[in-house]
Amino acid sequence: MRQTIRTMRQDAWTSEDDALLAEIVLRHIREGSTQLAGFNEASRKLGRTAAACGFRWNACVRKQQKNIIEIAKEERKDRKAERVQAQLEGGDVDHPTATLMSWAQVLRFLRQEKNTAAEWASRWRSAERQCNEWKQRFLELEKEHRRLNEEHRSLRQEFDSISDDYRVLVQIVDRARKATLKNEDSPLSADGFLYRIDENGNLERLLANPDLEQAE
Q1: Which one is predicted more confidently, 200 or 173?
Q2: How far from the centroid of its chain's Cα atoms is residue 113's Cα?
Q3: 99 pairs with which residues across the strands?
Q4: How far is CA 29 from CA 35, 52, 84, 100, in A?
Q5: Which end of the chain lies in a sparser environment, N or C, as judged by fewer CB atoms within 10 Å?
Q6: Which of 3-7, 33-37, 53-57, 149-153 has the lowest mean pLDDT?
Q7: What is the CA radius of gyration of the chain?
Q8: CA distance 125 to 155
Q9: Contact 87/95 with Cβ under 8 angstroms?
Q10: Which H or E run includes 155?
Q11: d(CA 44, CA 30)
Q12: What is the pLDDT of residue 110?
């Protein structure tokens, strides 16, 4: 056992030594420690062996401090009860009695996990609803896209048809214009009509003989 640097005392115990020994041992009792631990601490402070401190305690000091020892034991019980209650309410898990409170801690942990799981389940349902809404929106847009594609295809076909008709018409007008310019001396065409271009550039068909039209 490790002792202090000074030589172990061999002289008689004084009242101050007894008081210090009693103070140390009683503190260990109140705090739930052992008397042996108190003897070891007293030996370092009094310069005596732990055995000498234990012998002095049992032979003399304990009898003098009998009532105080009982009070210290009651305080130890109260402190232990307080620590147990603290553990039940989620106190210090490093306390030696923490293993007795593990079920309370497990219950608290499970409750927290239940709340967390419920929160994530709520988030999942919300995300699922949003996913369904976006899926429905996608189907609607896809349907609208197909409709617009069909409409575009129809308009494209109509445009191509009108373009073809326009090109044919332009060709006819162009041939008629050339035929009119080519036969300025004899503007009567083979079908018996007279063609001319008005001031707006439009092709105008006239009868070669107005009397013939009236006769008809």
Answers
A1: 173
A2: 16
A3: none
A4: 7, 19, 18, 22
A5: C
A6: 3-7
A7: 59
A8: 45
A9: yes
A10: helix 102-182
A11: 20
A12: 84
Q: What are the residues whose beta carbons fall under 8 Å from the beta carbon of 192, sequence distance 6 or more?
A: 207, 208
Q: Are 53 and 21 in contact (CB under 8 A)?
A: yes
Residue 18 has pLDDT above 70, yes or no: yes
Longest dimension (CA), the chain: 170
Would you state the pLDDT for residue 213?
46
Amino acid 56 reads R
Separation between Cα atoms, residue 203 and residue 201, nearest integer Å: 7
Sign of CA dihedral 50, 54, 55, 56: positive
pTM (predicted TM-score)? 0.37
Query: In this structure, what token pair is assigned to residue 189?
Result: 């065409």
Residues 181-208 have pLDDT tens digits of: 655 545 444 555 555 666 666 666 665 5
Residue pair 185/171 in contact (Cβ under 8 Å)? The answer is no
**Which tokens belong to 143?**
């349907």
CA angle 149, 154, 156 (to 5 degrees): 90
Burial of 188 (0-12, 13-18, 19+ CB in 10 A): middle
* The pair of three-digit structure tokens given for residue 141, joined into one six-digit string: 């847009």
Q: For residues 80 and 32, give the distance between their C-alpha atoms in angstroms, rounded to a whole number.
A: 8
